[in-house]
Amino acid sequence: MKVVFIGSGNVAVHLAPAMQKAGFSVEQVYSRSAEGARTLAGRLDGAAWTTETDAILRDADLYVFAVKDDVLPDLITRIPANHALWIHTAGGLPMDIFKGHAERYGVLYPLQTFSKNRETDFGQAPCFIEACSPEEEAGLRAIAGRLSGRVQTLSSEKRKHLHLAAVFACNFSNHMYALAGKIVTGQGLPAEVLLPLIDETAAKIHALPPETAQTGPAVRNDRDVMKRHLSLLTDPDMKNLYQLISTNICKEKNMSSIPYDLRKVKAFLFDVDGVLSSDRISLAENGDPMRTAHIKDGYAMQLAIKCGYQIGIITGAYTENIRTRYANLGVQHIYLRSAVKIHDYEDFLLKTGLRDDETVYAGDDIPDYAVMQRVGLAVAPSTAAPEIKAIAGYVSALRGGEGIAREIIEQTLKVQGLWMTDEAFGW
Fold first, then answer.
1. Is the pTM of this model over 0.90?
2. Is the pLDDT of residue 391 over 70?
């Protein structure tokens, strides 16, 4: 069987030699990169190479498209159709991308990570195939079976989800290794010190489900450790990533992801614009701002009030519809036109007799800064100003207006055993 390879990237660099070793005759390599085409052809006995689509051989039996996803749709229109079998190797593209351009077509997706400078045993890679007809599937299965002992038919819909899973399992994990390496090399240690840990983490998955193998402060809900870790991270993106992943681990275990002892909390205070509502507002004809409110925030607030918590609003906004909305929920402390928020916060403490460490405040911008430095737990939405995120004890993955009050109140009530009690089933 004569084969033409379209592409000279990581997949082609491994798949083309594997096919030649399996007895296929790789006749030609096409690539937009002369260096890539020449280098790959040089690894294949007798293969020619070209950078011109017009020079691609027309009499091959199999055309393997191993190119970037965004290149493939245009590329296949520039190659004249023939009676050969055309296949691509992409995980995220449908088989029918060839429809209307080729008579016979399919997919051969190897589930493996490939790097040009590292040898990979192709025979160990599961290969997922799909073809335009039962006859073509049988032929493609025979081709894949000469490359790997693990061949399985998979639809385009399922394959794109498999590709997504592969990104989590491989690409994101590798990025975590890189970030971990930055941390240790920043302290004068070689990144290689992490290799035994990485090896054991991967090895455990062969014997244990990932959920069982999970270790670390998030799965233990060790808030003190998580808080110390966050204090060591100066890069805001790494800090947000740490919080996001810790939050997800805790949610899987149905625990609080917030690095604070929520058993202390007796009160919740919120800014409005950028926290309870979006940081973008529409304007009425008279210039008054028009805001939205998240319905689940409202439910959580009224439930917290019924459970005995103090709820407050401290905002520089002045429209009476804010007072109406939150007073109707039973909110006891509403400060509008707050020029200096720390003054209203101190008035709140005076009226309630509460301490800083019993209070949560959620804010998003510089006017919230002084209050957030005082309270026990300062919370910021993902859209908060960088200065606010830097001092927040918890940065939510939610944007302003997306339910941050519900998130904080729900986690607190769960920790205190007050979630899904009799009070929860009514307004």
1. no
2. yes
